[in-house]
Amino acid sequence: MTKSFTISDIRHAFPILQESANEHPLIYFDNAATTQKPASVINAIDTYYSKQNANVHRASHHLSAIATQRFEHARATIQSLINAAHSHEIIWTKGTTESINLIAQSYGRSNLSAGDEILISLMEHHANIVPWQMLAEQTGAILKVIPLTLDNQLDLTEFDRLLSSNTKIVSICHVSNSLGTINPIKEIIEKAKTVNAVTVIDGAQAIAHLPVDVQALDCDFYCFSGHKMFGPTGIGVLYGKESLLNAMPPWQCGGEMIQRVSFSGTTFSHLPFKFEAGTPNIAGVIGLGAAVEFLQQLDREACRHHEEKLLAAAQQRAANLPSLELVAQSTNIIGLLAFNIRGYHASDVGTLLDQQGIAVRTGHHCTMPLMDHLNIDGSLRISFAFYNTIEEVHRCFDCLEKILAAPPSHTTTVTPVLPSIDELTVRLLASQGWESRYRVIMGLAKELPPYPENNRDDNHLVMGCDVTVWLSHQNRNGILSFSIDSNARIVKGLAMILLSYYNGKQASEILGSDIQGIFKKLGLNKHLSPSRTNGLRAINQKILKIAETESG
Prior knowledge:
The chain is an alpha/beta fold.
């Protein structure tokens, strides 16, 4: 039975929304990356492991029978959700990424040859680009890209021009994870059929927001991930038409996907098990089934209307921030807002919002070709789910206004003389709380010595950072000095700590030093986000690698 939409009841169903982050009430606006999980999903997984744990399909005992029943019930639940013709057209995978790889390596390797063409779009996630690049390299096929209009919709005129008798696969996202654009996939599928091209739809961003009917769409394949629709991580769905799946060879081999094995040959099992080698993610499947049942109890139209109101409120507040630059969006979008703020790197803003308990996403969002096309290195992305509130939207933009109104706490002009690491440590530890400390670190960016312009090239880029970082060095009579620059203030500030610690030392001193002790004393290991920690570690490792080379 469908429940009426009551935001307080919905929020109560998600335990994590009652928690805090950095001593503030949690505001979770990173739903395009992963959604939170209702208690019913958590309980379903807990019940399986605590009361029903057994392998599926293979045993004759009671626990296995219960586990198998719940496992296959979840498959039927997914079939109902997307209106597949048969439950065996639902293949369990780890997620959208594995689903697309399965199609590329099973269907693609078997059916494409040199000169055949694969069409994707400029707005695709890396998971819907790289597998097709690999397939093109393996088969000699040609990968072609549908461009975008000025408002970041698919250019259907160009799509018509690119579509030809050579087109064998058209693989398009239902919704863009970076722009929120809802693509006209039914029209695209109909056009693809005129040249007998197989259609693959990446539904990762659509499945939690839009109704999906694969028979009405008449797509050949549709893929999505459980964790983006309030289910567990590590579980996903590949829907494929029965005739195509039957004709495709297995992608992975092992137990479960066979009928008979002998040393003279193997006979493979029927659908769906032909594509489900090994012990599956049983708990994940059961949890995903529970997530779908949770969604099916809701008024999905009311949920969508609520998300539209959240987006409208965010757009209105954004319009009142002169320095906020929206990434161009079409009018047909899900609840997602992508923007940058003049004078700030998105990563810096995201860090300061995090200190207020507001979780957003910054970076290229696994759409680097799109970011190159937009001539930006990333964006700050706010993405909504039906459990978010209008009050949270206003709280987020209140914090953005506060960030823009408050200058960094330290305004020392650029100087070629680095402070000592002891001086920096005292200065940082004197800051009360991590919001204040972050501002001091960002203020340190103004003290970073100028970076050599001729070393702003790919050879000096530090790989492993989520922002652009250049690192170069000089060796004067065995004494090393490093220069660092970045497009993010927080990284430049953290670089000051590294330079103050390492510059002026011999290579052997650097290799024998203990920068981790400084990080621990300052609390960096505890308070930096995982991406920022990885970036700082990457810079440090590059410095150590240089010292190792210079010492030899």
